Amino acid sequence: MFLKKLAMSKPVTIVYDKNGMIQTFKGRVYSLNLRDQILSLIDKQQQIFSISLSSIREVY
Fold it and tell me: What is the mean pLDDT of the segment spanning 25-37?
């Protein structure tokens, strides 16, 4: 269900689990690698950040 939101070019906010702590990231989708199950996002400073799909809790 959240993959549909990721396909849009609008900014998204992702809540994910990292080492047992809940983190939040805001940015646009840079790439989606379904084979390795990794989502790459790019923020306002043009820095790329990767998140495992299994650690994502919410997307809005």
Answer: 91
Q: What is residue 5's DSSP assignment?
A: H
In the numeric block, the tokens 């690698």 are attached to 33
> Does the model's pTM come out above 0.70?
yes
Structural domain boundaries, residue 41: 2-59
Q: What is the CATH number of the domain that holds 40?
A: 2.30.30.520
Q: Quote the strand ranges of 1-60, DSSP E.
A: 12-18, 21-33, 38-42, 48-52, 56-59
* Number of domains into which the chain is organized: 1
Q: Nearest CA to 24 among 43, 47, 8?
A: 43
